[in-house]
Specification:
The chain is α/β, with parallel strands linked by helices. The protein has 16 helices and 18 strands. The protein is globular, with a radius of gyration of 23 Å. The structure holds N-(aminocarbonyl)-beta-alanine and zinc ion (3 copies). One of its GO terms (biological process) is pyrimidine nucleobase catabolic process.
């Protein structure tokens, strides 16, 4: 499907029809294996007005109900991508997918909701929220926001209150890298973590030591290494491990849950593993690219190819992705994101003579569901039920929107995919729906094809065709105090009673 310019895929709109006139709002998916994170069964799924009404074997269709045959296929919750950057200004550029093109791509790949990172505008969170709401007017699927914290003061604390209590945001990201732009200090992290805990919002970290990264970059330049390979050489995995360990210890000190985004290395996952082993509530999020790719392509002599693979933390040498896959299958890591931050080749070319200014980010919002199926399920590393857990259910639970999202259950939103395990799909920039002109998975043939995507009860992807509508996406409010916060007060009380009474000494 080629996307010409802006008006891409809305077949209904292009015929000048009302969106809803082409869709029956009653749908019966028959004969498939319905997979949830904790149960799978042969069953039919009946949907009305965007909500799942029944999940049971042998449902009969009546007049006015559209029937989809899913015999031999898996019927699962649509994917939730917990980490995307649509229309994000970053490193002097803006990611080339806006809310419409990025979400259309997501739907074509079986993702029916994403949580995007809103950035403050000049440090102002409220302005950042408004700016992201404006971008999201183009939406064609459901979405929520995380908010980044780029400095600390009373206004930031007040805006966090407002965003959590009134605007449905329940997570905040702290960048420990990108010195001079988004990076925050340990002092700011401690204050921010305390505020998150008070509000029941999940603190998230981009864990790399930004001061050391700067030193590493200077070293590369001094050595005359200015090409894309200098990127990963300048920020080795030990710097990711250090920052991950530091964030984990600060979270323990504050007694708050912690969510580590884009875990890319053995060093970071070892820190997470140790913390979880000791009972600490740490969530680790690998991304599709980190699970499936290594850094080898960043040595490609063709700059255009090498630059595509530049992201932070960087793709790592062979060995790391296998460890991340193992950690995902054993439960050390909990859910898979994409960190979709697409920059096209002209944007990447700005760093042709200096890797430090190549805009960081890779594509993935359209590919994640297929990559995880192929890499993890086809290889036998996880089961279809685990697949549902790591692609949707765990995310819905962490961000407190389960079982509205992340489940095929009566009462849940009708966001559903039908995956044919015997069909294949080929990934290419020539056929994908994102606006990016390259694809880090170019030419990959994946076994397992998401043949149908249902979003809000409408069939939006079928027979290789999208049928999506600008403005149809809904902002999903996410309440604070997810399960991750249950019992923290008891741990606080234990800490307090463990302190010895102050000693009174004679003057
Ligand atoms: O390279 C990346 N990851 N770009 C997006 C910004 C971020 O750090 O998540
Ligand atoms: Zn990041
Ligand atoms: Zn990111
Ligand atoms: Zn439309």
């Amino acid at each position: 499907c080629s996307l010409g310019g802006d008006e891409l895929i809305c077949t209904v709109e292009s015929q000048g029809l009302e969106c809803s006139s082409q869709q029956t709002n009653k749908l019966l998916i028959q004969g498939g294996i319905v997979v949830n994170a904790d149960f799978q069964q042969q069953a039919d799924v009946y949907i009305e007005h965007g909500i799942i009404k029944l999940v049971a074997p042998n449902l009969k269709a009546v007049d006015g109900v559209r029937v989809i045959d899913a015999t031999g296929k898996f019927v699962m919750p649509g994917g939730i991508d917990p980490h995307t950057h649509l229309a994000m200004p970053f490193m002097g550029q803006e990611t080339c997918d806006d809310y419409f093109s990025g979400q259309a791509a997501a739907l074509a790949g079986g993702t029916t909701m994403h949580i995007d990172f809103a950035l403050p505008v000049d440090g102002n969170l409220a302005a950042g929220y408004q700016a992201w709401m404006k971008k999201a007017e183009e939406s064609c699927m459901d979405y929520g926001f995380h908010m980044a914290i780029s400095k600390w003061n009373d206004d930031v604390a007040k805006d966090m209150d407002w965003l959590v209590k009134e605007k449905g945001i329940n997570s905040f990201k702290f960048f420990m890298a990108y010195k001079g732009s988004l990076m925050v200090s340990d002092e700011e992290i401690i204050q921010g973590f305390k505020k998150c805990k008070e509000l029941g919002a999940v603190p998230q970290v981009h864990a790399e030591n930004g001061d050391a990264v700067e030193e590493g970059q200077n070293r590369m330049i001094q050595l005359g290494i200015t090409g894309p390979e200098g990127h990963s050489l300048s920020r080795p995995s030990m710097l990711e491990g250090e920052a991950t360990g530091r964030a984990i210890r600060l979270a323990k000190f504050v007694n708050t849950p912690l969510y580590v985004v884009h875990v890319m290395s053995i060093d970071a996952l070892d820190e997470i593993s140790r913390a979880r082993h000791s009972g600490q509530r740490v969530i680790g999020e690998p991304v599709a690219s980190g699970l499936a790719l290594d850094d080898s392509k960043t040595w490609d002599p063709d700059f255009k190819i090498a630059a595509q693979y530049i992201m932070s933390p960087p793709l790592r040498p062979a060995g790391h992705k296998e460890a991340l896959q193992a950690a995902l299958s054993s439960g050390i890591l909990q859910l898979v994101a994409t960190d979709h931050a697409p920059f096209n080749s002209t944007q990447k070319a700005l760093g042709k003579h200096d890797f430090r200014v190549i805009p960081n980010g890779v594509n993935g919002i359209e590919e994640r569901m297929h990559i995880v199926w192929d890499t993890m399920v086809n290889s036998g590393k996880i089961s279809p039920m685990d697949y549902v857990r790591v692609t949707s259910a765990a995310c819905a639970k962490i961000f407190n929107i389960y079982p509205r999202k992340g489940a095929v259950l009566p009462g849940s939103d009708a966001d559903i995919i039908i995956l044919n395990p015997n069909a294949t799909t080929t990934i290419s920039a020539k056929t994908h729906h994102s606006r990016i002109d390259t694809n880090v998975y170019e030419g990959w043939i994946m076994k397992g094809n998401i043949e149908v995507t249902v979003s809000q009860g409408n069939v939006v992807w079928e027979k290789g065709t999208l049928n999506v509508h600008r403005g149809k996406g809904r902002y999903v409010y996410m309440k604070p105090f997810s399960y991750l916060f249950d019992g923290l007060d008891k741990l606080d009380a234990t800490y307090l009673t463990s302190l010895r009474a102050p000693v009174h000494r004679a003057a």
